[in-house]
Amino acid sequence: MVEGRYGRVPRDVADQLQRLLIGADGVEAFLAQVAQHAAGAVENALSCGLTVGATRSSELIGATSDKLAAALDEIQYDVDNGPCLTCLRTVTVVAVDDIAHDQRWPAFSRRGRQAGAGSSLSIPLTIDGGSVGALNLYSRSPYALTEEDRRRAMKFADQATGAIALARRLAEREARARHLEIALSSRSTIDQAIGIIMGQTGRDPGAAFELLRTQSQHTNRKLRDVAAEIVAHTSRHRRA
């Protein structure tokens, strides 16, 4: 057993989630599986959504157990408000007994009821007092989520937080790797364009880069896009 925020948590459940992460086909697929497990762990919850915040940006990673949870989470992202985001931002449990008549988030309440939601429960996912994300449970009926459901949801949150935090770190590493790959590709294209300009104009590398940068500014286009166009045009001309 390990001590969690909401009580003692079976170690084998937390280990099972970590094994699930290792075998999952990507971070989002893992989070979707966790959402499905959470919906099954709480008796009166029909659907579950997970919202995970990035550590160094405002970007959110979302995953859901089904279409209802996907619709409700998407509504909140769209209006930038609602129980899920309030839970994430305040690191507090947020319960909504009757979504149709809750006045805290009028836009979400109206659209959420239209989507078929009756009640919801959002549980913060925390490590060392810091917010990792929010576990969001939804039912189609008002007043459907009981105190026992809340207790089970809180225990599941403890079970899942460690694996979800690890998934977040993996997602951020994947994003950094993608950004680096794009940056290296852009640098290679820019270097090629500078070489072409040097060959065509006789300028040195610094002057060739300034010419490329000036064209980028005057056309209001990204430097790498202007460079790619020069490289592509030269390649077509050579083939012709």
From TrEMBL:
<dbReference type="InterPro" id="IPR003018">
    <property type="entry name" value="GAF"/>
</dbReference>
<dbReference type="Pfam" id="PF03861">
    <property type="entry name" value="ANTAR"/>
</dbReference>
<feature type="domain" description="ANTAR">
    <location>
        <begin position="170"/>
        <end position="231"/>
    </location>
</feature>
<dbReference type="GO" id="GO:0016301">
    <property type="term" value="F:kinase activity"/>
</dbReference>
<protein>
    <submittedName>
        <fullName>GAF domain-containing protein</fullName>
    </submittedName>
</protein>
<keyword id="KW-0808">Transferase</keyword>
<dbReference type="InterPro" id="IPR005561">
    <property type="entry name" value="ANTAR"/>
</dbReference>
<keyword id="KW-0804">Transcription</keyword>
<dbReference type="GO" id="GO:0003723">
    <property type="term" value="F:RNA binding"/>
</dbReference>
<dbReference type="Pfam" id="PF13185">
    <property type="entry name" value="GAF_2"/>
</dbReference>
<keyword id="KW-0418">Kinase</keyword>
<dbReference type="InterPro" id="IPR029016">
    <property type="entry name" value="GAF-like_dom_sf"/>
</dbReference>
<dbReference type="InterPro" id="IPR036388">
    <property type="entry name" value="WH-like_DNA-bd_sf"/>
</dbReference>
<dbReference type="InterPro" id="IPR011006">
    <property type="entry name" value="CheY-like_superfamily"/>
</dbReference>
<dbReference type="InterPro" id="IPR012074">
    <property type="entry name" value="GAF_ANTAR"/>
</dbReference>
<keyword id="KW-0805">Transcription regulation</keyword>
